[in-house]
């Protein structure tokens, strides 16, 4: 009975939306209007080329033109235009929150998958990727384990890089803005041997002082960044049936991470100000190699993806966040991952389409953290490592029962064998322990969709997802607080996808309900002292919500976009202890989960090439702790852009966060119970220039 209510709600809303859409179908408007249509978007989200309508779920697609016009160069900025997606990017790490499914603040892994050219980027530190020289970004909500090699609990962001071909494409980017910020980029692609061998190269450099100042040292670049990213591709097509792509990518980053400040107490500072004695810094090095081989036959295609990735992060952080030399932490995380994926998929089939896949990985993590303090009783070190061997079989098939009625079913078998060990050394001497997190998961999905008309499609989807367990490298003190198990989710979704007025108006709506069991949470270790935390599977939770998206071209020169996401994430059962006192968090909101997100934008492009656009981007209230005591009330920012674009050149003047709205991206309590905060970006403005030749 517990599940019947959400299913009934979803089916009822789908019926209502569909009925209203059909009622308006017979009322065409402006039959004599000038023909302007929104371009059909081809996606590869299902690992077979198709349209947004073909995907049995909620998907948002944004192409290169959308990103360039709005000057979006970070994934966290791009997802502001997608309902119910939020990138947490803080000094302690990152994560992608989808439909209110968040994770532990210091967890290494994100519940939402991130792929770039079919290769997974699993670590939370990797999520806020630079965006440059892309074809499109596809955002899939809900578990996608029956389509993608590596499992994902809440969804997938699939970044598609432009493939080099016979066309010569060269591009130069220059951007300058306040806070001593400069971005330079260039990309080149084209044929080496026409029709057979192609190359692609891209390189981007970025430097900024950032918008934080250390009032103790008078440094104004304590949250700055210097980074260099690059990618190279060699593509070989000896015949029409075979394609081989070799990819090399890398990044080197020098990050200022001094952003956490006191919001109360004697060490309180103003917005974008810190007062610390240490020069907080993080250094990241990322390197990846991959090979993709595709072979086609008349009715099917075989794809092989082989990848190897390494990621290293070292950082130094002033723990007490004051100008007094009390203590600091040094963290080191090194990851190396090998993976192999095979996919066999149908092609050019009308009634039946299918995909079968196999995936395997071997992943090692070395992680350690040293706490230094003037009081030796508070100093400690932790050194640990883990080895993860995982493999999966997955598949999905869609059958058109009658014209317009499609049934989709999928299944994933996911097996992981993860072993870890650690040595914790407090002032009393070293303690060594180890653990194993082995798991086998069967993950089904089913969907039914129907084309009520050529421009109205409704669907319902059921799916299961999970977030793998792991190890608490940064605060464990014993075997009991070292390992934690997987959390699981059951997802119900219903939606409608429509287009109207000669395909100039797109309206999509989705409702969903998610049950999460064995929720991974952070709890104190009783009697172990300050800073001793364990990760457990102590909570049950649910999320329910709505997503609305619209796009409208009333005349060729104007485009309107709008999106709204609402996700009510609530704890159903979680009883624990705080300071030795029993507490009950049941009924509280899940942390790191904005209640809503929205966007509203208008773009005007004159026939001469001059353009102007304005965007309103909003994020609702969210809590940063289980007790729901640390909260941001929500915020909205306005972005403006004026410029000129032609086939070869684009330049623009822009201002983001026009009204300098203040907001928090992180809040946490100090050991003394005082609130600390990391501020969001202030008003920024600058000039961007793109040249294609």
TrEMBL record:
> What sequence ranges are listed for the domain TonB-dependent receptor plug?
52-156
The answer to keyword Signal applying to this record is yes
Tell me, which GO biological process terms does this entry list? iron ion transport
Endpoints of the signal sequence:
1-23
This protein's GO cellular component annotations are: cell outer membrane
A Pfam family hit? TonB_dep_Rec_b-barrel
Annotated keywords: Cell outer membrane, Ion transport, Iron, Iron transport, Membrane, Receptor, Signal, TonB box, Transmembrane, Transmembrane beta strand, Transport
Describe its membrane topology.
Answer: Multi-pass membrane protein
The protein's predominant localisation is membrane
Cellular compartment(s): Cell outer membrane
Keyword Signal annotated: yes
| Domain TonB-dependent receptor-like beta-barrel, chain residue ranges per copy | 215-658
Q: Which family would the database say this protein is a member of?
A: Belongs to the TonB-dependent receptor family.
Q: What's this protein's name?
A: TonB-dependent receptor
Species of the source: Pseudodesulfovibrio alkaliphilus
